[in-house]
Write a structure and sequence with these properties.
Number of helices: 13
Strand order of the largest sheet: 2-8-7-6-5-3-4
Largest sheet: 7 strands, mixed
Number of domains: 2
Distance between the termini: 57 Å
Structural class: alpha/beta
Number of strands: 12
Shape: globular
Order of helices and strands: HEHHEHEHEHEHEEHEHHHEHEEEH
CATH class of the largest domain: Alpha Beta
Radius of gyration: 21 Å
Helix content: 25-40%
Strand content: 5-15%
CATH superfamily of the largest domain: Type I PLP-dependent aspartate aminotransferase-like (Major domain)
CATH architecture of the largest domain: 3-Layer(aba) Sandwich
Amino acid sequence: MKNSATNLHVLEESIFAQMTQKAITHKAVNLAQGFPTLGVPLIVKDSFQKALQVDENHQYAPFQGVLSFRQQISLYYKKFYDVTVDAGTEVLVTHGATQAIYLTLMGLIDKGDEVVVFSPHYESYLPALKMLGANIKEYLLTGPDFALEEEKLNTIITSKTKLVIFNNPHNPSGRVFTAKELTFLAQAVRRSGCFLLSDEVYEFLTYGEERHRCMGEFLSLEEGLLICSSMGKTFGVTGHKIGHLISSSILMKKLGLLQQHQTFSVSKLAQMAFTYCLEGLEEYLPSFRQLYGKQRKELMSLLAKNQLDFVIPEGSYFILVDHREFEKKGIKSSSGKELCDILVTKHQLAAIPCHSFYLNSNSSEAQRYIRLCFAKESKTFKEIKILAH
């Protein structure tokens, strides 16, 4: 047998797969992988029932996506952000937001192109960039505030930059960036002339007074902006893997060709169902935020009762804890990775070490935090022995 492609050597098993397997092996409470266990919303159940009745042939969807679904996506960008998106030429339905990211990278990046990523970041960014031979440049977001700084942005994003990948609300920190910070980012991108991929999958999961601001409010599609998001995150049902990508019509023609020769199309039934879901989005969101906000409060309260300091998340469904905090529980560790191994094997709690979210995974900042997912039932939190109070 001949060898596989040489660029596959850059790939390693996902940290999510590793920790979930360890959770199964050690019968641990799994706060590692970011999938909700809070039940399927009624609007989703009803919408899928309706789609089953309406879709009589169950055949391929158009490669761009079902038109009525793209129209609903366009409508919500206008309604919530006052961002105009042409449903016919500027929206592409993808197999989850991760495929939207891969399509973008495959369509924009040649070997040697400079790409700026903000670390910590979603784990899938780097493997794809490394396989493409990109020159990866890191903007280090430093905890606990994870702020964007104008001078630093202008230093890192230059005329050599081809693409910037940005995530807001931010995974894993839970940061929701301010209008001032987003203005700084837009100005740096505009000055550079590069593309910006804005990963906004947690757009509707914000808490308190914090409001997510779409990057389309600060930069136009014609200026090289691309936006991706996910129905799985918005409706808490990650198993359907329905995402979308928005870009200028000129760029979308090229990315659409990649879609045609990759998956060709995405589940028609699911698209039809999420069309109905989006029709009721405004009425659905308050209860959605209330539910996740309640679970956020419960896990924060549990950590506080154990005198563990943490980064308060403004968005997403994750909480970061400095690994050194667990010394208060008598657990000493030299890194987040070591702490997570101790927690899962000796205390039956699975968490994610954040070193995989950095270009330099051995740096002190990369080794600092562990990530806990709070999109879990209340009874799950009560099963965490190390946090029993």
